[in-house]
């Protein structure tokens, strides 16, 4: 990329971002006053990314298989550690089989593109994750959205598509709002119309259903018209993605999901770590209980409705007030997420505070009191024109 056309265009785009207050950046975390900040912004809900057993499993997988998978899964990139991971994930979630992808994003792309195709249509919850929206676009079939968690709206759209194979995609627990999907009613609607329900459990596994996910909690694990996608990068503390489904669907994905076929297999360290994390979550329900009780502590102190998962979402009156609160909290040693348009589905700026299982109630309480105090003050005195991105 060189020459004035590109320079002019990049400068114009940068100026537009400043004008709209949508500048983003990727800052490196730094210590505050010589101490690591308290992280209530990441997705390491169970604290497993630094758990010595998970770290040891990553080391062991590197020693066994090397640093990389070295090829796509269909060539020579399927290693014993991938099979172990798939078995551990299927067991954790109560599904018959699992297929591991290199990210949760790739898993969503793979599922929607491979399960749609000619004669199909896709319906998405309007607040579904960007990867599901991108996947719908890449599927090159007609797609539409239904109102968030509105089963009646979905029912109407399904009735109007009689005769098509319809794939419906939702999240189990929504990543920004923190609310849960009415999975049982959604599955009933989908069954009435002979459609297929894809549930993204990125924020449900490890937290809901004693760690087994919301699909298992509501009794839908193994339901023939439900396919689950997951990321290994949140509660499981590693990286990668997975699809949990019956074996016929797995076989179809192995043969047709382009984001599986044309992608290098998941790195051994990530696979080993995630397999160990999945086994730990399955054998220790107290991990999920701790994250839920810490989440209740945060929502109680911050005066918000408790969400279904680890994410607690505090609405702020303006993007400026959200950024200012977030920056002050960072200066005072607590990291929270700052979500504002265009990254928020409903256009409401928010602080996103995530509970963690590996913090004591006293640590969570002290941090939540600080968040509540700072959020309330910035709600009263919002600052316009955010220039800084967090
Ligand atoms: N789905 C949801 C709901 C997510 O929140 C995310 C991660 N932000 C993904 C999919 C993508 O997962 P990954 O980071 O593993 O690509």
TrEMBL record:
| Entry's Gene Ontology molecular function annotations | 8-amino-7-oxononanoate synthase activity; ATP binding; dethiobiotin synthase activity; magnesium ion binding; pyridoxal phosphate binding
Q: Which Gene Ontology BP terms does the record give?
A: biotin biosynthetic process
Q: Provide the catalytic activity annotation.
A: 6-carboxyhexanoyl-[ACP] + L-alanine + H(+) = (8S)-8-amino-7-oxononanoate + holo-[ACP] + CO2; (7R,8S)-7,8-diammoniononanoate + CO2 + ATP = (4R,5S)-dethiobiotin + ADP + phosphate + 3 H(+)
Query: Where is this protein primarily located?
Result: cytoplasm
Q: What is its EC number?
A: 6.3.3.3
What this protein needs as a cofactor is: pyridoxal 5'-phosphate; Mg(2+)
Listed name of the protein: ATP-dependent dethiobiotin synthetase BioD
Native source species: Intrasporangium calvum (strain ATCC 23552 / DSM 43043 / JCM 3097 / NBRC 12989 / NCIMB 10167 / NRRL B-3866 / 7 KIP)
């Amino acid at each position: 990329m060189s020459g004035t056309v590109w320079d002019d265009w990049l400068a114009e785009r940068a100026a537009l971002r400043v004008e709209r207050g949508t500048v983003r950046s990727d800052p490196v975390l730094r210590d505050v006053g010589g101490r690591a900040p308290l992280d209530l912004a990441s997705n390491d809900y169970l604290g497993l990314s630094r758990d010595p057993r998970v770290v040891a499993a990553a080391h062991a997988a590197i020693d066994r298989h090397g640093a990389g998978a070295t090829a796509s899964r269909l060539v020579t990139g399927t290693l014993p550690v991938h099979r172990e991971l798939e078995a551990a994930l299927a067991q954790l979630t109560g599904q018959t089989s699992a297929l591991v992808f290199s990210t949760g994003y790739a898993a969503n792309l793979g599922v929607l593109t491979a399960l749609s195709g000619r004669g199909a249509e896709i319906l998405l919850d309007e607040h579904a994750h960007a990867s599901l929206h991108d996947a719908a676009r890449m599927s090159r079939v007609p797609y539409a959205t239904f109102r968030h968690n509105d089963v009646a709206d979905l029912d109407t759209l399904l009735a109007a598509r009689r005769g098509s194979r319809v794939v419906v995609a939702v999240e189990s627990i929504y990543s920004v709002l923190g609310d849960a999907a009415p999975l049982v009613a959604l599955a009933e609607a989908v069954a009435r119309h002979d459609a297929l329900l894809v549930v993204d459990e990125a924020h449900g596994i490890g937290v809901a259903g004693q760690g087994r996910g919301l699909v298992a909690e509501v009794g839908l694990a193994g339901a023939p018209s439900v396919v689950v996608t997951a990321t290994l990068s949140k509660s499981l503390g590693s990286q990668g993605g997975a699809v949990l489904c019956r074996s016929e669907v797995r076989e179809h994905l192995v043969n047709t999901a382009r984001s599986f076929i044309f992608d290098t297999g998941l790195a051994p360290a990530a696979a080993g770590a995630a397999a160990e994390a999945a086994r730990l979550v399955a054998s220790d329900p107290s991990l999920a209980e701790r994250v839920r009780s810490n989440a209740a502590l945060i929502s109680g102190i911050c005066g918000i409705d408790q969400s279904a998962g680890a994410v607690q979402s505090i609405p702020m009156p303006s993007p400026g007030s959200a950024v200012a609160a977030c920056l002050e909290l960072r200066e005072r040693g607590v990291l929270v997420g700052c979500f504002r348009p265009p990254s928020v589905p409903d256009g409401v700026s928010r602080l996103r505070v995530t509970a963690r299982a590996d913090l004591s109630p006293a640590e969570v309480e002290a941090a939540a009191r600080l968040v509540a105090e700072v959020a309330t003050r910035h709600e009263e005195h919002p600052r316009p024109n955010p220039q800084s991105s967090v």
